[in-house]
Amino acid sequence: RRLSDGTRVIRGMEELKGLDTAIKAGLQEAELIALQLYTGPMYFKYNSVLRAPKELLRDSNKVPNKYTTTIHCIVSGIVKLSRHTPLPEGLRVWRGLKGMRLPESFLNEDKLGVSGGVEYGLLSTTTDVRTAMQYAGEEGESIVFEISCGAIDRGASLTFVSQYPGEGEMLYPPLSYLEVVKTPRYRE
């Protein structure tokens, strides 16, 4: 569910195709459609498929639509857009998660001295910490990640195509690795 100010914007295809961002990135119509769909309620369905246990996905009767083509178009769009997303020095993005507890293995260093984990789904983040805090909620266990952006770990800004442009969404592809580089801060 989207928690921003509630102002939903759905742009037409001709408008999207004419935007400088879409033109510079060389986005195809299918990529624009897929990215715009992701920024609305469909994000839940796409991420549910990406995060589903592989045993469940083997049986096409249990998961009749795996959204393979749409997810491919989203990832292709992320790759193209990330090449054209400006990264101001020191850019940080945030990700808020509600009702979730991280496993100890995420926080503790492994035998190679690394801690973190892989997000199997598409990794939505925001340039606005308040939006991340809204997603995390105030009750129960919640997490807000602060993520440093750089040349290697760069997402794609979806603001121009977003149904909720006020969220300042930066999207990363599935199987993104989040490395813990600082001691987590806890707030009761």
UniProtKB/TrEMBL annotation:
**Protein name per Swiss-Prot or TrEMBL:** ADP ribosyltransferase domain-containing protein
Provide the organism lineage as a comma list.
Eukaryota, Cryptophyceae, Pyrenomonadales, Geminigeraceae, Guillardia
Query: What range(s) does the ADP ribosyltransferase domain occupy?
Result: 23-180
Could you name the domain of life of the organism this protein comes from? Eukaryota
Could you tell me which species this protein originates from?
Answer: Guillardia theta
* Any Gene Ontology CC annotation: extracellular region
Q: Which PROSITE patterns does the record associate with it?
A: TR_MART
